[in-house]
Write a structure and sequence with these properties.
Blueprint: H1 16-25, E1 32-40, E2 45-53
Antiparallel strand pairs: 1-2
Length: 54
């Protein structure tokens, strides 16, 4: 069975050990990806960042 890029997303509702093992297992290709919401409290400006570890 092949690994798809969709499986590379990290979801932070999972346990840290699960995330750690996923990052280790997906080193190289396809890497792992996560979306993080950054909020500027002064201006209430919101930016969604997409991070990829390879």
């Amino acid at each position: 069975m092949q690994i798809s890029q969709e499986e590379s997303w990290l979801y932070f509702d999972k346990e840290a050990l699960v995330l750690h093992n996923k990052v280790r297992g997906f080193l190289g290709w396809p890497g792992t990806r996560a979306r993080i919401l950054v909020v500027d409290e002064k201006s209430d400006k919101r930016n969604e960042l997409e991070l990829k570890s390879i």
